[in-house]
Stage II sporulation protein D (Lysinibacillus antri), 318 residues
Amino acid sequence: MKKIKRNKQLIIVASIFCFLSMLFFFPFIFKQSDEKSEATPESKKDAIANACELSIQVSGSEVPIDLEEYVIGVVAAEMPANFHSEALKAQAIAARTYVLKSTNFGQTAIEPTVAKQVFYDPNTRKSNWEGSFEEYEEKVRQAVESTKGEIINYNGELITAMFHSMSNGMTESSKNYSGTDLPYLQPVASTDFQYADNYETEKTFTLAQWNQLLSTNVTMDQVKSARIKRNNTGRVETVTVGGKEWTGRDMRTLLDLRSTDFRINVREGNIVVTTEGYGHGVGMSQYGADAMADNGATAHEIIQHYYKNTNIEKITCK
């Protein structure tokens, strides 16, 4: 009986202790829980914002640039600001994709050159646009902001979003250009040549200039007999003059031509090279994008025309 009585006393004491503990600790627990629930949404929001704050390091500049500000500078430099707003939006999406792919989401620097993407800072834009600065700045900025965070994916991966000024009626494949066959960089029709005033250009060389630039010693008759082999998009694959062969890309570089779609003629004692289009021809044609926009196409339709079987998505914050 004494043992039972003692056990009952222990149970009572334990119960009283538990009750007092609950009175003391529960308000503290509830307070901590409430404070946490109030802070969580804001903390989460800040964390997401920080994760989305991407910056780009432009070679030659000490201060990193916010991604969207960088894209504004690229669109302003790479596409005429008087182009259709949908074309400017398409350029913004392509430029954003290109820089994120090239720099591994801002981990490395990018050159502000035609080999990568040209970039104009606000002072350069103001100098170039002069009296139209406010109008063009607002137009370009609006095009970039309306596509904020949009990128182009193929099978879940960022694409190499190459673009050029104007095609020759058909864009170039990545395989023809570099030997690498990318499924989203295939030839597509592009009618920009109908809209570009400077679609066809001529460059004239004396025989001496020709031989100096190409490091040859050919005669004018040999130039007249030049053999040109073209690929499936009408661009020059190889040129043979006087027994020496060049690729179309090499000839373009050596003679500083606007594209690899060219013809060679001898006229009035000089060599005349007539070039069609402007740029390497791969990916989106900027004049073609403007032509499509003038005909009612949206930025997304332009992107999906030039970059086949791709998806446009928002940058995922991690």
